[in-house]
Design goal:
Blueprint (H helix, E strand, L loop, with lengths): L1 E6 L11 H14 L3 E8 L2 H4 L9 E3 L7 E8 L2 E7 L1 H4 L17 H16 L10 E5 L6 H7 L6 E5 L7 E3 L19 E2 L2 E3 H8 L2 E4 L2 H6 L3 H4 L3 H6 L4 E3 L27 H10 L9 E8 L5 H12 L4 E8 L1 H13 L3 E5 L3 H10 L2 E4 L9 H7 L3 E5 L2 H6 L5 H6 L5 E3 L4 H16 L1 H13 L5 H14 L1
Parallel strand pairs: 1-2, 1-6, 2-5, 6-7, 7-11, 11-12, 13-14, 13-16, 14-15, 16-17, 17-18
Antiparallel strand pairs: 3-4, 4-5, 8-10, 9-10
Helix pairs in contact: 4-5, 10-13, 11-17
Length: 472
């Protein structure tokens, strides 16, 4: 049995803002099949503490960046959690990363340094009955962990997964003492980044092994365009770098058992869900495909490209049902477009049940991201026979088989990819979608191929097991 401690800022089902939480919540169960015991160290945000019954602490810290803190052990939905209960850091209104207006908390460096510090303490043996063989950190929030492992004199292997390199977790140099960091290591060889403390760089430099969530994204990160200042570091550490595509929870996302939908086994069974979805979004019948999009509304997700490319879909009989929130300007632009076009309907916000209904009822799922480390919505789409139309980048490139002439001849296509990632290519992809959809036999073939794709965690879990063995 290999014991692994996840250090992570969010984890389903307790708290979720994005795909990171889904990965952190689903991977432990998959790893258990390979004799890997995972415990997840998670901040005790107000929303988390409201869901867990407080029990006797398994560890206590008298002064963790400003006040005392406890570690509470519990199990939720089969996941073994270690909750860092530190009210002075986590018990507040707003989101887990910022206030109600979306501004990051000023003490985020301390909030997530505390998580890393506790992770190092657990690695040192602070729990009475469990100690990890490996610490596995996720994104910048866990990046300072190897610094605290080092300062504690520990050689516990540290695996670092990059889910999204766009966020660096930078803090001003004046916080070195506040964060209990060794000032002698504030250099370009360790965690100094353009005069600031970079939690992400600390993780990259201190990790035993680094991985990200698709092989294409791992390759992209070696370039200035995608590496966002970290490409040189990753090039230097290329021999320690790998890409492991995420999976999805096959029980939570199963069209044959999903309680949120009219259940189905084959593409033909989607019709009831499509009718229900059109009613939910106030859309009528249409000759073209019903596309769906569930996303943060940002330029990174290509929403501005969508606005420019939409006429190619909507003016030729296609429809779009969209669910998401994000950039206020994009929200307004989408709502204005929906007011002008009867084949476009937009709901601002997020609704888990509705997202399942959209996967079940849609003909195609749109993921036009400018960059996408892995992506999960295209995997949900494959599982439900909702054909992905995606940009050719990151995990989208690794998980969707483009309906090229060769793939169509071999009858292996599962979706549509477009490149370059601009509005013109996106509009051309809509034209391809409309052509494929017009031939019902061809379309059914692509849907069946999609539903046959392996999108669970089995392959990834085996690869993570191999990765862990390589550092022990």
């Amino acid at each position: 049995m290999t014991n692994v401690l996840f250090v992570v800022s969010e984890c389903a089902p307790l708290v979720k803002t994005g795909g990171l939480a889904d990965v952190a919540g689903a991977l432990p169960a998959a790893l258990a099949q390979y004799d890997v015991n995972v415990r997840v160290l998670l901040p005790g945000y107000r929303t988390v503490m409201a869901q867990v019954q407080k029990s006797k602490p398994v560890a206590t810290y008298n002064n963790l960046f400003g006040d005392s803190a406890d570690v509470i052990a519990c199990q939720v939905a089969g996941v073994d959690f270690l909750i860092l209960d530190a009210p002075h850091l986590y018990d507040r209104d707003g989101s887990i990363y910022g206030d109600a207006t979306g501004v990051d908390w000023l003490d985020n460096p301390e909030r997530f340094a505390a998580l890393c510090k506790a992770g190092a303490g657990i690695a040192a043996g602070d729990l009475p009955d469990w100690q990890p063989d490996i610490v596995h950190g996720h994104d910048w929030h866990a990046g300072l962990t190897p610094e605290y492992l080092r300062s504690a004199g520990l050689e516990t292997p540290f695996v670092f997964t990059i889910h999204n390199i766009a966020f660096h977790g930078n803090a001003p140099a004046k916080k070195l003492a506040d964060l209990s960091l060794d000032a002698d290591r504030f250099t370009s060889d360790h965690f100094e980044f353009w005069g600031q403390i970079s939690a992400l760089k600390a993780g990259l430099m201190g990790a035993t092994k680094i991985n990200t969530v698709s092989q294409t994204y791992a390759n992209e990160l070696m370039t200035p365009e995608f590496g966002l200042g970290m490409d040189g570091i990753l090039q230097a550490r290329q021999s320690d770098m790998s890409g492991i595509v995420n999976g999805i929870d096959l029980d939570a996302w199963n069209p044959q058992t999903d309680p949120n939908i009219a259940k189905f086994k084959s593409p033909a069974g989607k019709s009831k869900n499509k009718t229900a979805l059109q009613k939910t979004f106030g859309l009528g019948k249409a000759d073209g495909p019903l596309c769906v999009l569930v996303s943060r509304l940002t330029e990174q997700k290509g929403i501005d490209l969508l606005l420019d490319a939409l006429p190619a879909l909507l003016d030729n009989g296609g429809q779009l049902a969209l669910l998401g929130s994000g950039d206020p300007a994009l929200e307004v632009a989408l709502l204005k477009a929906a007011a002008k076009h009867q084949n476009l309907s937009v709901k601002i916000g997020y609704d888990e049940k509705l997202s399942h209904q959209m996967m079940a009822g849609g003909d195609a799922i749109l993921v036009p991201s400018r960059f996408e480390p892995c992506g999960l919505t295209q995997l949900y789409g494959l599982r439900y026979g909702t054909v992905p139309l995606v940009a050719l980048t990151g995990g989208l490139a690794d998980t969707v088989i483009n309906a090229s002439p060769a793939a169509m001849v071999r009858k292996v296509a599962t979706g549509i990819q477009f490149f370059p990632i601009n509005a013109h290519a996106f509009a051309n992809a809509f034209n391809r979608l409309l052509t494929l959809y017009s031939d019902k036999d061809v379309w059914r073939s692509i849907q069946r191929n999609a539903m046959k794709q392996p999108v669970g965690w089995e392959a990834a879990a085996q690869t993570y097991k191999d990765l862990y063995e390589s550092v022990l």
